[in-house]
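sry for the spam today, last one i promise. struct tokens for design, 58 residues
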């Protein structure tokens, strides 16, 4: 089974001093046998920068 998600890598400030998060897309692979079975992630060369307020619930 395969899925995709974003992993936060670093926090940085933009030109206005507002905090943003650098994220990298990862593919998530599971065995498909059991939800608790170990799986692995594989980084993809796709990145994005999002405001911290979109990632963290205040």
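last one done:
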């Amino acid at each position: 089974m395969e899925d995709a998600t974003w992993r936060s890598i670093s926090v940085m400030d933009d030109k206005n001093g507002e905090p943003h998060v650098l994220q990298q897309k990862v593919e998530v692979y599971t065995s498909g046998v059991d939800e608790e079975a170990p799986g692995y992630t594989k980084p993809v060369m796709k990145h994005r920068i999002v405001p911290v307020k979109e990632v963290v619930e205040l």
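The chain has one helix and three strands. ok im logging off now
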